[in-house]
Amino acid sequence: MNIIKSSKALNRYLNTIREGDSKVTIGFIPTMGALHQGHASLIDESVKNNACTVCSIFVNPTQFGDEADLDKYPRPIEKDIKLLMEHGCSILFLPAYEDVYPKNYTHKEFELNNLDHKIEGASRPGHFQGVSNVVSRFFDIIEPTYAYFGQKDFQQTAVVRRLIEICKYETTLKIVPIKREPHGLAMSSRNVRLSDKGRKNAAFIYKSLTQLRDDVPELGLKESVSKAKQFISAQKGARVDYLVAVDSKTLEEVDQIDDAESIAVLTVVEYEGVRLLDNIILK
After folding, report:
1. Domain boundaries, the chain
2. DSSP codes of every residue in 44-65
3. At 104, phi and psi to the nearest 5?
4. Which of the residues 39, 87, 127, 183 is marked catalytic?
5. What's the pLDDT tens digit per position in 60-77?
6. What would the DSSP string read from start to end of 22-37?
7. Looking at domain 2-176, which of 2.40.70.10, 3.40.50.620, 3.40.50.12650, 3.10.180.10 is its CATH number?
C-alpha cells in the first residue's frame, strides 16, 4: 500500500494509472480514521470491484460544530494503516489541512435542497456543508469512478447523492449496508467512547428499530415510531435526540407507509454521553 500525503502527488499517481489503462476503475472511501470493520466492509467492496482503491484519512474540522468533539475524535493512525493493509487498500491518502483547503480555497455553500437543515442537520448546523466541501475537494483531486459510503450515515449519503448531481461528477455512489457488533449496535468510531457494558447494552437501539419494522403491519407507521421512542426512552441513561420515518430521497417526515416509494427510519440516541446513529430501511 502506498501512503501519499500530497494532493498533487496523488493526482499524478492516479493519472499514471489511468494512462496505462483507460478503462481502469478507481474506488474511493473517505474517512476520518479510527477505522473499524464497518470501514473494512467499504474497502472490501471497493477492492473487489476496482483495480485501485483509495482511502483517505482526514479529520475534517468543518464537520464539527463543537471543538471539544473534534479534540476528542480518536486518531489511532498505526492501527488504521494495519487495517487498510490487511484489506488490500491500494493507496492511503493522508493530507494535511492546507493540502485539502489551500489558502486560495473559498468554502462553498452548496444548494442541497434543504437536505443539510433537516434531522441531523437541525442539531448540527453547518455539518453537511462541511461534508460537502471536503467530499467535493476529494472528488476533484481523485476523480473516482465509484465512491463508497456506509448506510449508517444515511443522511450523509442523501447529501452526497445531491452533491454528485449538482456538481455533475462522473462518480457513482455506492452505499454499503450497516456493519453491526455481534449484539446489534451499529459499528462506529464513536463506540470506543462507550464502556464495555454500555457497548453491549446499546443493542437496545437496533432492537427498537427491528421491533418497529415488525409492528408496522399491525400498528401502522406513526404508532410504531411512537412505540419505539417510548421503548428507547425507558432505557436507563438513554435520551432520544430524534427518531423519524422519512422519505429516503427527500428526507421529509412521513406518517404512513404509503406516503413514499422508499422509507427509512433514522435515529440518534445519546447514551453514556455518546451520540449513536442508526437506521433501518422499511421500504
Report:
1. 2-176, 189-281
2. HHHHHH-SEEEEEE---GGG-S
3. -90, 5
4. 39
5. 776 666 666 656 666 789
6. TT--EEEEEE-S---H
7. 3.40.50.620
What is the rounded distance in angstroms from the CA atom of residue 117 to the CA atom of residue 124?
8
Q: Which pLDDT tens digit goes with each residue over 24-40?
A: 999 999 999 989 999 99
Query: What are the pLDDT digits (tens) for 115-136?
Result: 999 999 998 899 999 999 999 9
- SS3 category, 96: coil
pLDDT tens digit string along 140-163? 999 999 999 999 999 999 999 999
Active-site residue flag, 39: yes
Question: Could you tell me which of 142, 150, 144 has the C-alpha nearest to residue 171?
Answer: 144
d(CA 272, CA 64): 20
In CATH, the number for domain 189-281 is: 3.30.1300.10
Report the alpha-carbon distance of residue 35 to residue 33 in Å, rounded.
5
Full-prediction pTM beyond 0.85?
Answer: yes
Sign of CA dihedral 268, 272, 274, 280: negative
How many C-beta atoms lie closer than 10 Å to residue 121's C-beta?
A: 20
Q: What is the DSSP letter of 159?
A: H
Q: Which three cell numbers stand for residue 3?
A: 501512503
For the chain, list the strands marked E by DSSP.
2-4, 26-31, 52-57, 91-93, 146-150, 172-176, 238-247, 263-271, 274-281
